[in-house]
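Sample entry follows:

:::
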Amino acid sequence: MIEKEKNKKNLEGLKELLINEQKDLEYLKQYRDKHVLKLKNVKFELEKAKGLLCSFLNNLLSKGTFFFKNGISWIIKILWQIKSDINISIFPKYLDMKSVDYLLKYSKGEIEFDHLNLQYKKLKEIFNLTKEIDSNSKQNMNHCNSESKFALKVKPKIETIYSEVKRKLKYPNFDKKKNYDEKLMEILEIERKINIKYNELRILKQNEMNRVSQLIQKGQYESSNKAKSEDILRCIFGEKDAFEMLNKVNRKLYS
């Protein structure tokens, strides 16, 4: 009889446990469904915001009147960075196809240039930290080697600290196989690529400046595109370069 009561209690306990587990499972399902729905709503809002931003930027691009240092290329860069396609027909009507092609190439080059500079900055951080940690470690090890008894106690602690610092930094390719001499070579290689890209952009810009200046001097760009030369130059090159180019053009025309 006692055994029967005991089994009955155990069975009731298992039933209660099962009911509680089912409740927990149901709660987790509801929690999951709620957050899946929330995630869908967030994605929808992000796509909506992206659409509004693209529409706004395309409108600015078509007008060609909102420019910064390098004309309207900043708009092209943002559109590409948010993974939006650019329709060539949306560019200002007063730009010829060579200027449109230049703006697309220059914007792409600037994105690549910015990416290289970001890589360079990260590599410099890794290199400086590697050098600093290796230097501190060697100093501590040399001190330990000069005092053998003390070294036996301290060396494992130093190695543990050294490993822990590297783990916490969480930098890529940060291990004993790559010393800072190799990292320095990586930095020099990035510097080389940065210089190449900088010169490519400089030559690309100068060639377009020469081409547009010659057309403006002959009155061909304005007449064929029905726009003022200052508007054309600001749109392609930005305020500062446009001002300097206009001065040069006017000096040649009236000298």
In short: Residues 2-63 form the longest helix (62 residues). Confidence is low (pLDDT under 50) at residues 140-155.
